[in-house]
Amino acid sequence: MPLKRLHVVVTRRLPDPVETRLKELFDAELRDDDTRMSREDLVEAMKRADVLVPTVTDSIDAALLAQAGERLKLIANYGAGVDHIDVQSARQRGILVSNTPGVVTEDTADMTLALMLAVTRKIPQGLAEMQAGDWRGWSPMAHLGGRIGGKRLGILGMGRIGQAVARRAQAFGMQIHYHNRRRLRPEVEGPLEATYWESLDQMVARMDVISINCPHTPSTFHLMNARRLKLMKPSAVIVNTSRGEVIDENALTRMLRAGELGGAGLDVFEHGHEINPRLRELSNVVLLPHMGSATLEGRIEMGEKVILNIKTFADGHRPPDQVLPGML
Fold first, then answer.
1. Where would I find the beta strands (DSSP E) of 117-212?
2. Which of 230, 239, 233, 232 is nearest to 211 (CA)?
3. In the chain, what is the straight-line distance between the N-terminal and C-terminal CA atoms, in Å?
4. What is the pLDDT of residues 153-184, one digit of tens each?
5. Which of 21, 97, 134, 315 sits 20 to 30 Å CA-CA off 223?
6. Model confidence band, residue 3 (pLDDT cutoffs 50, 70, 90)
7. What is the SS3 assignment for 7?
């Protein structure tokens, strides 16, 4: 008799190679469409699954976990961030949580630089003019932006992605500054020629560009609040490819509308896909629909990590990317 395979429930559509491999290895339950599961559907999925594969769009809180079935023993998150999962409550119920760290590093760093350039060089305005057929030829004073070379970049969160952003920005001639819970080791900080600031207030007041690259945790919620945003130079630009909750979006919107900041490039938002409509009206703001990690290569690599975590768990071992409460 063949061994019984784990019943794996996947909450969203994933790339075909990932879904096919999940089917080959496990009793995988896949989605026919790419809509987000309702809370009721998530509850039912957690009652029948041995392993749940959620994404950032699935809020798995303590109340939801309390309704999970006895079979559920692993939440193998498809993504690096786990702020949508109550890891402590899961652990108390004997449910392991894993994620996919490191996979989205380079893609997200690429998008961070793309947003910096889009805002500072006014790329959306030029694109809109061309698409509307309004371009009347070159003019020496048209669409004047600013260089990023020689500017000071302040990175908030110097983990994998923050360091990847620093390497790219360094190649563009930017001066690298950063604030982090801990100072980097000299062998990491040195090649980046990075300046460490223990005081976030002191750093943001001096930077030309701020890049948000820290995770969303209770301690980073509204880390860039109204008071701290007001410390920034009126000409400064802020870019966020991490988590929207790190910035007070309403305060940011007010300052941008009042001309108290130079611009913003946002790939993530405080309330998910519900964006402050006033942000859409601003010409110095570039908004993207959470595209930072959106490459086919990255999505497949994320799936391969999910599969490795589940397979390792199925073989009776700790998933290599297990997330513990103390890590958050």
1. 152-156, 175-179, 195-196, 209-212
2. 239
3. 42
4. 999 999 999 999 999 999 999 999 999 999 99
5. 97
6. low
7. strand
